[in-house]
Amino acid sequence: MIANGKPVQGLDIPIVKLVPRTERKVNERYKKRIEASLRAVGLLEPFIVFPLGDSYEILDGNLRYRILLEMGVETVPCLIGSEREAFTGNRMVNQLSASQEMRMLRKSLEELDEKTIADALGIANVRARLNISLMKKLEPSVAKAFEASKLNLQCCKELAHVKPERQAEIVKLMDSCRDYSVTFVRGLVLKTPSAKRAKANGAKTPWTRTDGPKSDLLKKLREAEQQQDFYTGLYRLYTTNLLKLVIYVRGLIANPRVKQYLGQHHPQQLEVFEQIINSTER
């Protein structure tokens, strides 16, 4: 997520790790109104926090923090501020992520009817915002990655075009490349063999797109694969050279005359060589 030209990270944080930045008195009537809203529809805006060691200082949301703490809430959605400055949440962001919104709506539906929630939030169709049909199409590990905000909603929509086992394969490739962009997902979906594609049921699919977008996606995918191959090859070369070095050093140390000479004239280097051998034999 980007806000004010800076990247913003979203996390669900235990409320006990939050620390208010300031303490101020508020009108009791205003506090009760906020509390009533929180009990009715849940937390609409995430907290804005800044990491301080093992805790997080609240930059925006002190009143909501006090109310939720009294309500016994254990975990709250937060956005990590890049700077330790006081500001309102609306300056930074005014929407929850799709996964956070879904959790909030599901929790609200346990106590309220859809119309009450829809009227309070200005949502025409609460069920549609829960993406129930989409979640049913996702492989369990993929759905879990979405709920953890590892994958965004658009990525999941793209993955729904392929079968569950292929979805898991794609997410593993994303993990290995550390690329969770929609463009990368589209490219991997586009390369999916027909046997692993999900049934279209009359809907448009990535394979019915024009040749232009297809070509661009495949080009970016080839570049990502080449980059992965390069770093894999580099790591193998490094491992091979390191093994050769260890064998060479072990041979030196095994020679009594060489070891004696190093001990007399280069004791520090001998110590380094012995550390290399010891570290590889643990």
What's the end-to-end separation, in Å? 44 Å
CATH class of the largest domain: Alpha Beta
**Computed CA radius of gyration, to the nearest angstrom:** 27 Å
Average pLDDT metric: 78
Number of helices: 14
Task: Specify the helix fraction band.
Answer: 55-70%
For the sheet with most strands, the description reads: 5 strands, mixed
Count of spatially separate domains: 3
What are the secondary-structure elements, in order, as H or E? EEEEHEEHEHHHHHHHHHHHH
State the CATH architecture of the largest domain: Alpha-Beta Complex
The stretches of 5 or more residues where confidence is low (pLDDT under 50) are 1-6, 86-95
Overall 3D shape: flat
Beta fraction: 5-15%
The fourth-level CATH homologous superfamily of the largest domain is: Conserved hypothetical protein from pyrococcus furiosus pfu- 392566-001, ParB domain
Strands across the major sheet, in which order?
Answer: 3-7-5-6-4
Count the beta strands.
7
Question: What does this molecule look like?
Answer:
By secondary structure, the chain is an alpha/beta fold. It folds into three domains: 91 residues, Alpha-Beta Complex (Conserved hypothetical protein from pyrococcus furiosus pfu- 392566-001, ParB domain), CATH 3.90.1530; 56 residues, no CATH class; 51 residues. Helices cover 58% and strands 11% of the residues. The chain has 14 helices and seven strands. The strands form two sheets. A five-stranded mixed sheet has the order 3-7-5-6-4, with no helix packed on it. Strands 1-2 form a two-stranded antiparallel sheet.
